[in-house]
Design brief:
alpha+beta; Arc Repressor Mutant, subunit A; four-stranded mixed beta sheet; two-stranded antiparallel sheet; 7 helices; elongated; HNH endonuclease
């Protein structure tokens, strides 16, 4: 839905008395928002100032231009936020990577299970050590921290290099 960055009329959110009527109607004073965000932004105009909305618009337009050229633009995730959701698992991953900084592969197994990884080193996380381990690893995937490299029915992933660098403190 089309929304005004500076309100179209006096008393509206972020009204700028220095804008002309033409300036208030200009495309430069407009931003596309979903209906929910439009209401949210206008309901609390002190939380969303003109500079924020212009930054959002500028980024959205630049991202759209890049996507029109066939590229994918996605927002990076905050790995600290991921760590807050599952501190024990992330700390174990950090400890493992510090001990073997060039290992990237991980698997998830039960304690009774064994696995012969072959020549590729890997880290093993056990279901009994982490409640809802597979769900946590799925969230790690959504954050771009790991990616699926499953082979022969064994759940396995690789750390992304961005996540490995985060864990190693680089």
């Amino acid at each position: 839905m089309a929304a005004h960055i500076s309100a179209a009329s006096q008393g509206g959110p972020r009204f700028d008395e220095h804008l002309t009527n033409e300036g208030r109607r200009a495309a430069e004073n407009g931003i596309w928002l979903c209906q929910q965000c439009s209401r949210l932004v206008d309901a609390d105009d002190s939380a969303y100032d003109v500079a924020d909305l212009i930054e959002w618009k500028t980024f959205a337009e630049a991202a759209a231009a890049v996507e029109l050229r066939g590229y994918v633009v996605r927002k990076g995730r905050d790995f600290a936020g991921l760590e807050a959701k599952m501190p024990k698992l992330i700390e174990e991953m950090r400890t493992d990577l510090r001990s073997k900084p060039f290992t990237r592969e991980i698997i998830a197994l039960s304690k009774g299970a064994s696995y012969n990884p072959g020549p590729i080193p890997l880290f093993c996380y056990r279901h009994e050590d982490h409640d809802e381990l597979l769900a946590k690893l799925q969230i790690c995937e959504h954050y771009g921290a790991i990616y699926d490299v499953r082979r022969n029915q064994v759940p396995r992933w690789n750390f992304s290099e961005d996540f490995a660098e985060y864990l190693l403190g680089m």
